[in-house]
Design brief:
Layout (H helix, E strand, L loop, with lengths): L2 E5 L2 E3 L5 E8 L7 E7 L6 E6 L6 E3 L7 E6 L4 E6 L8 E8 L15 E2 L3 E5 L2
Parallel strand pairs: 2-11
Antiparallel strand pairs: 1-3, 3-8, 4-5, 4-9, 5-6, 7-8, 9-10, 9-11
């Protein structure tokens, strides 16, 4: 059974940092690209970042470039999202998702991600 479980969310002050983790089980992680998405109340879900199967390629939304870093450890079956210089507008539920489709800089937000985690809340507030 494919399962993705996020952790690491919480409440942080503006300018602070959080590291989200996505633990994968039930499938061969290195066969999938993994994306991080977020959804704030009243807003559509948006792609935050994505990483290719072996970590060779990473992609970011313009709003998080230079502040967020995605990485993966296939041996540990984990994908991470390091978030620095957090802003109130980063507040959202963050979810990780898996796709077996090859991703590029132009397609990573548009391909079909077939498996999703339940999400973890990130709140940036003073």
């Amino acid at each position: 059974q494919v399962q993705l479980v996020e952790s690491g969310g919480g409440l942080v002050q503006p300018g602070g940092s959080l590291r989200l983790s996505c633990a994968a089980s039930g499938f061969t992680l290195e066969s999938y690209s993994i994306g991080w998405f977020r959804q704030a109340p009243g807003k559509e879900r948006e792609g935050v970042s994505s990483i290719s199967r072996h970590g060779d390629y990473t992609y970011y939304a313009d709003s998080v470039k230079g502040r967020f870093t995605i990485s993966r450890d296939n041996a540990k079956k984990q994908v991470y999202l390091q978030m620095n210089s957090l802003k109130p507008e980063d507040t959202a539920v963050y979810s990780c998702a898996a796709t077996s489709t090859y991703i590029t800089a132009y397609t990573w937000t548009r391909v079909r991600y077939t498996d999703w985690g339940q999400g973890t809340q990130v709140t940036v507030s003073s």
